Amino acid sequence: MTTNQNPQPPTSQGHEGEPFLSVRTTVVLLTATIIGFVIGGLTVFTGTPMAAAVIAGITSAGVCIPVLRTLIH
Question: In the chain, which stretches have pLDDT less than 70?
Fold first, then answer.
């Protein structure tokens, strides 16, 4: 019984030089996340329940993504 052992480690067959996300996409998503945290934090300070603040933060982050996508080049 013989087994074929490959002495070299397997290499990925994907695109080795390309990043997972472009710089523009990363900046847009990071900015949207920061805006969501700020809006959520400000909503907590108004005295609303935590669940409402989370919903406000997620909504504001989602709404600002298309706007940021057109503003950031």
Answer: 1-4, 6-15
